[in-house]
Specification:
The protein is α+β, with helices and mostly antiparallel strands. Helices cover 48% and strands 12% of the residues. The protein folds into two domains: 218 residues, no CATH class; 39 residues, no CATH class.
Length: 267
């Protein structure tokens, strides 16, 4: 398995990422929290804002007492759900579902971490010395496509994407990937777009750390088959700068260009 540093070099050289990749570490005990290498949050803030800050290079750790969003605290396992939530009444009150039955269906299918935490730490993946539990990447649709291609290169088709446009960073990008050991995509939710101020065209991807390492290698190994010539030139320069081996990148050799040539030859 490739290591953290090499994986970051491979994916950063292969893609044009405008935000830092984020690592999430679950802290199960007070001792783990005290030893976690990040500044403690001094004021209440939502988990998704912690992730946003990490994309800008700022690491934080937080407990239930310094968390301000009930959706995040439930999804991460910092606190138990309450009857009003379990009944669907809380979700129904949001105006997102046509009736209580639909709201209850959404509640029943949202993914929460089954563990109980003391705290959680978020910081740029490059800052981790230990292994994080989940990796979150916030980027555009093109890079999302490439990351999915890299994941598929290693693991085949992911058939279990789960999205509701609600509890995006905490459930769709953290709890679901962790509990199911698989990648997931989120279009964000209205709440985190308001609280964290994500760009309208941004998409979030969450996946377990071990699968991130392999996915980064998959992105690197699918450069030749997916990228156009102009992008290949930039990527080859990036690889050379990082002293990474060229995985076999050739002009006019993307699969769709080769297919086009073959089709023309058949006419």
């Amino acid at each position: 398995m490739i290591n953290n540093r090499l994986a970051l070099k491979k994916i950063s050289s292969s893609l044009e990422l405008n935000r830092k990749i984020v690592g999430v570490k679950f802290l199960f005990t007070e001792n783990e929290y005290e030893e976690a290498d990040a500044k403690a949050a001094k004021a209440k803030l939502p988990y998704c804002v912690m992730v946003k800050l990490a994309t800008h290079g700022y690491g934080l750790k937080s407990t239930l007492e310094t968390s301000s969003c009930g959706g995040g605290t439930r999804a991460l396992g910092l606190e138990n759900t309450k009857p009003e939530f379990e009944s669907g009444c809380e979700y129904y009150s949001f105006g997102l579902y046509q009736d209580l039955a639909v709201a209850k269906n959404v509640v029943n299918n949202i993914t929460f971490c089954s563990h109980r935490l003391y705290g959680v730490m978020t910081k740029p993946l490059e800052s981790f010395n230990e292994k994080p539990d989940v990796v979150i990447i916030v980027t555009d649709s093109y890079n999302t496509m490439r990351i999915i291609q890299g994941y598929t290169y290693k693991y085949g088709t992911q058939t279990g994407f789960k999205m509701t446009g609600n509890q995006a960073v905490c459930s769709e990008c953290t709890a679901y990937p962790f509990e199911n050991n698989s990648i997931n995509i989120s279009m964000f939710c209205s709440g985190t777009r308001y609280l964290a101020g994500w760009g309208k065209s941004e998409i979030a991807i969450g996946l377990p750390y071990a699968k991130f390492l392999e996915t980064a290698d998959g992105v690197y190994n699918t450069i030749n088959g997916t990228e156009q010539n102009a992008a290949k030139k930039i990527i080859k320069a990036n690889l050379a700068r990082e002293k990474l081996e060229d995985p076999g990148i050739y002009d006019n050799d993307a699969y769709y260009i080769r297919l086009s040539k073959n089709n023309n030859n058949c006419r």
